[in-house]
Amino acid sequence: MQRTLIGLLIVLGTAGASRTASAQIQTANMDIVGSWQDRFHEDLWERRSGLQVGDFTGIPFNESGQLAAMSWDPGWFAIPEEQCRPHTGIYGLRGPTGLRITAEIDPSLGTLLAYHINYAAGGERTIWMDGRPHPSEDAPHTFEGFSTGRWDGNMLTVRTTHVKAGYLQRNGAPHSDQATATEHFIRQGDSLMLIAFVEDPVFLAEPLIRTTNWAVVENNPTAGGGGLACGAFQVTDERGSGVDKHYVPHYLPGHYEVARDFMIQHSIPPEVAKGGDETLYPEYMPTAKKYQAEFLSKLSAANETAAVDPAKLGYFGKWKLDRGKSTFQASWVRLGLDGLDGTAPARREMVIENVKNGGIHHVTDTQVVSNDTGVFRTEYQALFDGKDVAIKGGALDTVSLKKIDDHTFEQVGKIKGATVATSTFKVSPDGKTLTVTAKGKIPQERGQAAEYSNTQVFVRDR
Questions:
Q1: Is the pLDDT of residue 45 over 80?
Q2: Residues 54 and 186 reside in one and the same domain
Q3: Rounded CA gap, 270 and 279, in Å?
Q4: How far is CA 166 from the centre of its chain?
Q5: Residue 75, Cβ neighbours under 10 Å: how many?
Q6: Which of 82-91, 148-157, 235-244 has the weakest average pLDDT?
Q7: What pLDDT digit, counting tens, does each position of 57-68 carry?
Q8: b/e per residue, 175-199, with b = 16+ CB within 10 A?
């Protein structure tokens, strides 16, 4: 199946073009030189906000890959030695990033020597086009690796080796330093597509295949630029107090409890969530359904032991965002094709507690992307009297509350005295879900002056 797909992609990339390989710069319709802005035609959640911890579906891990993925903790990025670690050449072009691609010409021969690809966060890759060989197996590995390329008709084929160990996606899915990549860059007019085949004898049972897309950006030489901003002041250490700064946070086999959030929210059993080559094919569906039925049965039995009727708790309790059922409408420039805002948080939790005189204490913790070690907290305490109170954290200056009934209340958020957000918190009759509907307008001084409308669905955690 893999060989058939590879052959089809090569045919598509070379159809209608000359078979003569060329080391020269290609025609304007074929060459990759220029500024390119990323497009999110697929894999929106993975490439924008980042997948949830524990979501390794779609990756053909072998057993070693599954064990390595299930041992990772987000606090790993807070280790001083890792705070400025760049993306590797295997992953670097996969995340949200524009590209600036330039050609280097041999001054003495006038031939194409190399392509240089600059991308966000200071990343740079060099693709050597002069026919030089790859280094020996004993040569040092770098984050970007060693890449050589050749033109096959209108398709640039690139081979990358000698990459340091890194990740395939930003929630801990690993690749080893033995990973290699075969990449095909295909330009069609103003569109640039990258088809990548990643092989890793240490962690993958078969190649991982992905496509990534960009659109040309006219007269924007800074696309893909930007320096690397990281370090102690940019990374929050959430490994806990009293822990040595060089301690590597991790999970032992069988103790990857944080992944259960993803499994429970999406009803995906552990056997499926951890990925694997057998999970990628239709023949696995009966087995997946069997595991799912067993998993849901265990969850149902555990829920029945709860002593408190959720319907009687109203909006009090702990809530976790169900991102799959939530919608985040356009309030940023970068959008998915479905019109939804791809910057929806990877994880969000709320705790609403009853306080004296009938008010509430409301805390919200947000993890923007799955590999972000910083959790952003907003917190306030207010009565249902419509009076403005200060809120800690977040974009709002103040909030006020109005009680509708025991299952519903309204929150009004203000910046500099002007109302910018009105949110309705409504609990379902069974007390198991809390829907927050927000409408408002982003002030000009906070970015684009744009209206937005978001609907967040939370599930009860306790």
A1: no
A2: yes
A3: 12
A4: 15
A5: 19
A6: 235-244
A7: 999 999 999 999
A8: bbebbbbebbbbbeeeebbbbbbbe
Residue in the structure block whose two tokens are 């400025």: 84
If we measure between CA atoms, which residue out of 31, 169, 22 comes closest to residue 91? 169
Q: Report how far residue 64's alpha carbon sits from residue 377's, in angstroms, rounded to the nearest whole number.
A: 36
Cα separation, 150 vs 214, in Å, equals 21
User: By C-alpha distance, which of 369, 80, 346 is closest to 234?
Assistant: 80
C-alpha span between 14 and 152 (Å, rounded): 7
Measured distance CA(40)–CA(35) in Å, rounded: 17
Q: What are phi and psi of 101, to 5 degrees?
A: -110, 125
Q: Has residue 204 been placed in a domain?
A: yes
Q: How far apart are CA 11 and CA 194, in angstroms?
A: 15
341's tokens: 């805002």
- Token pair for 421: 């957000």
Which residue is associated with the tokens 């490439």? 47
Strand ranges inside 252-359, DSSP E:
317-321, 327-328, 347-354
- Name the range with the highest mean pLDDT among 32-36, 51-55, 251-255, 354-358: 32-36
Task: Specify the amino acid at residue 220.
Answer: N
For residue 445, the model assigns a pLDDT of 54
CATH of the domain at 326: 2.40.128.20
Q: pLDDT class for 370, splitting at 50, 70, 90?
A: low
Residue found under tokens 């977040």:
394
The answer to whether 324 and 266 are in contact (CB under 8 A) is yes
Residue 380 lies in a domain: yes
> What pLDDT score was predicted for residue 334?
39
Looking at 216, 246, 273, the residue that finishes a domain is 216
